């Protein structure tokens, strides 16, 4: 068992924050696609603010996750390589969304072929975000990162599972 060091009342903060950027990034992609299909600027505006909220939320979630990555997961633990891949995947996805956010905020995403490019980049970001999320699930369900034991002896079983993995 690997316990989060960044928590509120015994609950790790990182998992509390991740739903927001995920929803905002997926929403940004959906609203960009709606703008691409309809040409309605309202969808572009909604996508812009979804991307802004997503990037802000991702930075906050990443900060909480980084605390756990550095302080809670030992370098020799099998979970460390999964956590590293999770960090890299979500970092790449967030960087892609940040680029499209800047294109939105400058108005460049409205010009020429950029609406299509921005929508495709956001789609790639959503796919990479899905991979990062799957890896986050691996950390919780396979490596038991942030999971508290609820039955006597469960801590020892988790430790043996972690060593065997």
Description:
- The longest helix has 31 residues, at 41-71.
- This protein is 75% helix and 2% strand.
- It has 6 helices and 2 strands, in the order E-E-H-H-H-H-H-H.
- The protein has 165 residues and is an all-alpha fold.
- A hairpin with a 2-residue loop joins strand 1 (7-8) and strand 2.
- It has one domain (7-164).
- It has a two-stranded antiparallel sheet with strand order 1-2.
- It is elongated and about 55 Å long.
- It has helices at residues 13-17, 19-38, 41-71, 79-106, 114-141, 154-164; strands at 7-8, 11-12.
What's the gyration radius in Å? 18 Å
Strand content: under 5%
What is the chain-wise order of helices and strands? EEHHHHHH
Q: What percent of the residues sit in helical stretches (DSSP H or I)?
A: over 70%
Largest sheet data: 2 strands, antiparallel
- What's the number of domains? 1
Strand order of the largest sheet: 1-2
Q: Structural class from helices and strands?
A: mainly alpha
Shape estimate: elongated
| Mean pLDDT over the full residue set | 87
Tally of separate helices: 6
Notable characteristics:
mainly alpha; two-stranded antiparallel ribbon; 6 helices; 75% helix
């Amino acid at each position: 068992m690997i316990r989060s060091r960044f928590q509120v009342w015994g609950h790790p903060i990182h998992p509390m924050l991740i739903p927001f950027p995920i929803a905002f990034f997926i929403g940004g992609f959906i609203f960009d696609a709606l703008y691409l299909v309809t040409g309605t600027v309202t969808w572009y505006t909604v996508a812009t603010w979804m991307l802004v909220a997503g990037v802000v939320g991702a930075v906050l979630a990443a900060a909480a996750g980084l605390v756990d990555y550095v302080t809670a997961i030992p370098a020799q633990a099998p979970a460390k390589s999964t956590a590293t891949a999770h960090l890299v995947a979500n970092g790449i996805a967030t960087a892609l969304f940040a680029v499209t956010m800047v294109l939105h905020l400058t108005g460049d995403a409205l010009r020429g072929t950029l609406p299509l490019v921005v929508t495709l980049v956001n789609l790639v970001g959503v796919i990479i975000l899905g991979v990062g999320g799957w890896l986050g699930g691996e950390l919780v369900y396979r490596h038991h990162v942030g999971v508290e034991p609820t039955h006597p002896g469960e801590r020892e079983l988790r430790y043996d599972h972690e060593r065997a993995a």
